[in-house]
Amino acid sequence: MALFRQHTDRELTNLIAEDNEAAFAELYNRYKGVLYLHAYRMLGDEDEAKDILQELFTTLWVRRKELISISTVSSYLYQSVRNRVMDVIAHKKAEEKYIDSLSQFIASGEYMTDQKVRENELQSIIECEVARLPAKMKEIFELSRKENLSYREIADELNISDKTVKKQVNNALKILRQRIEIIAVYFPFF
Questions:
Q1: At 56, phi and psi to the nearest 5?
Q2: Which of 74, 94, 131, 165 could link 151 by a cystine bridge, Cβ 3.0 to 4.6 Å?
Q3: In this predicted model, what pLDDT tens digit does every residue of 71-88 receive, in sequence order?
Q4: Which positions fall inside the RNA polymerase sigma-70 region domain (predicted)?
């Protein structure tokens, strides 16, 4: 190790590019302390600062053949640490934002997807039950509820009294209520 202390950064990178592990160890020992402090000052977390150094020097060894193109090693290392710190900070912010939005969603108690599914299922059940009504009752009920016609308008259209229309709609509602209550007993999720 003492053998490489006198070498410049440029000489060390040339040796590292030739797979010299001792030169790599010298470069690591030369910069690990100041780079750690640099990362720690920005993050305030010892473990994350250590992780950044580990990742930086691992990448440096893996890409050692590319070191020859680096003009100033110290600048490259400081910039690499800074970039990695910025990535960690950005990741933390994204993570916090996600956790906050998830917390708000849970706190609001509104599970729109689940509610929408139940709403669609209930609508489907109601439509099936309406389809099972007697033909005339079904026709009157649909004119009342789907077409939004008044009892008088339905009576005029079907040539029946408005009292008959009212009675048919009331009977249809009574039948539907009973059938849906029975379904709710067996399927309490509604």
A1: -60, -50
A2: 165
A3: 788 888 899 899 999 988
A4: 27-92
